[in-house]
Each structure stands twice: as C-alpha cells, then as structure tokens.
Design a protein that fits this description.
This protein is elongated. The protein is mostly helical. The protein has ten helices and no strands. Helix content is 70%, strand content 0%.
Length: 213
C-alpha cells in the first residue's frame, strides 16, 4: 500500500500531444497516466474514476492512454501490478530481515499494517478494494489480485517453515495472512489502526502458543 505523492498538474497546453514527441516524452506521458491512475483509483475507487478524469489529472490526450495501455482495464491491471511490486519489495525486506528470529519477522508484517493504517490517506488494501469492485472474473486485474495473495501466503509460509515448532502447524501461515487481511479491512471500516494493533496481539498469542506446544 505504498503512498504515491501527487505531482503538479500540467497546463492545458502541455496536455496536447506534440508533433515532435520523443521516446523520452512518450515515456513521460505513460508514467503520468499511471501516476494519475495510482492516485485516483486508490483514493476514490476504480469504478468511480473514469478515463476522462485520469486524462485530465495526467494532462494527456485520450489517444495516448490507448497507445500505452490499450484500455482502462489494462491500466487498472498495471496500477495493481505497480502496487504489488512495491508491496512485495517492502514485505520481502521485512520478512527476510537477517539476524531476527522467524517469530519476530512474522510480527513485522503486522507492524507494516499498523504503519499504513495510521496514514491519513489510508483507504484500505488496494488489492482487497479491487477484488470488491471488479465483479467480472475475466477482468485482467483479477489475476494480479490473486497472485498477490498467493505471494503473501507463500512468503509467510517460508518464514514459518524456518522454525521447527511453527512448521508443525500447517495452517499457521494461512491463519496469519487471514489475521492480516482482516485487520486491513477493519482498519479501513473503523478509520483507525486499532484493528491492526489487535491483530498483532492475536498473532503474538498464536505464535507463542505454537512455540510452547
């Protein structure tokens, strides 16, 4: 759920495609479209934000969106892919932190949730939000949502497997991910990081119980 800082909105004149466009300018337009989609889809919702709003925010012509992304559905997919890339990088660093016991690394997952749920611009988990909004199972972004959940479960499972006592509980990884997911939803509903603190406490009790078996 990384935060993307807004950029100054370009002037109306700069939104017009140039006859002398260069590959660098072309890349800039592509990035502006993705940045605008990133901000608007997360803050207001995928279904609530139309193509015209993204074009206005990005200062881009309609043709450029279809040139670079083909459709709104593909732009939504790329938005979620970019979020997944950043989230995986951050969580992989936490879950793979050297010199820290597996139990404590697993708890860092919940510290990550607390940190993000404490932000003023927190609007929930972008993958959970997308799964609620996108009702067509054939939408190209659904595969990104499923892949992100599978990655998180596998990453948590790999840390669990490092500790013999924890590895004896085959459902532990899924239980921790379920706690994490539920905390993010509740934090959004309550507009408070409180559920993430509570989920961390519950995870700590679960891990302590597993280690004391």
């Amino acid at each position: 759920m990384p935060k993307t800082l807004p950029k100054p909105k370009p002037s109306a004149q700069s939104a017009r495609p140039s006859r002398n466009a260069t590959p660098a300018n072309d890349r800039c337009v592509k990035d502006r479209l993705l940045d605008a989609a990133n901000r608007l889809f997360y803050a207001e919702g995928i279904e609530q934000v139309g193509i015209e709003r993204i074009l206005e925010e990005a200062g881009a012509a309609k043709a450029s969106l279809y040139q670079h992304y083909g459709s709104k559905a593909e732009l939504v997919k790329r938005y979620l892919e970019s979020r997944a890339e950043l989230t995986r990088r951050a969580l992989a660093e936490l879950l793979g932190w050297p010199g820290i016991a597996p139990r404590d690394r697993l708890l860092l997952l919940f510290d990550f949730a607390v940190e993000h749920a404490s932000r003023k611009d927190y609007r929930g988990c972008p993958f959970q939000n997308a799964s609620r909004e996108l009702t067509d199972p054939a939408h190209p972004a659904i595969a990104v949502v499923c892949a992100q959940h599978a990655w998180l479960k596998a990453a948590v499972g790999a840390v669990v497997a490092e500790a013999p006592a924890l590895a004896q509980m085959p459902q532990l990884a899924e239980a921790l991910v379920t706690l994490y997911d539920g905390a993010l939803i509740s934090a959004q509903m309550q507009q408070s990081p409180g559920p993430c603190h509570a989920a961390r406490w519950a995870a700590e009790q679960l891990l302590a119980g597993a280690e004391g078996r």
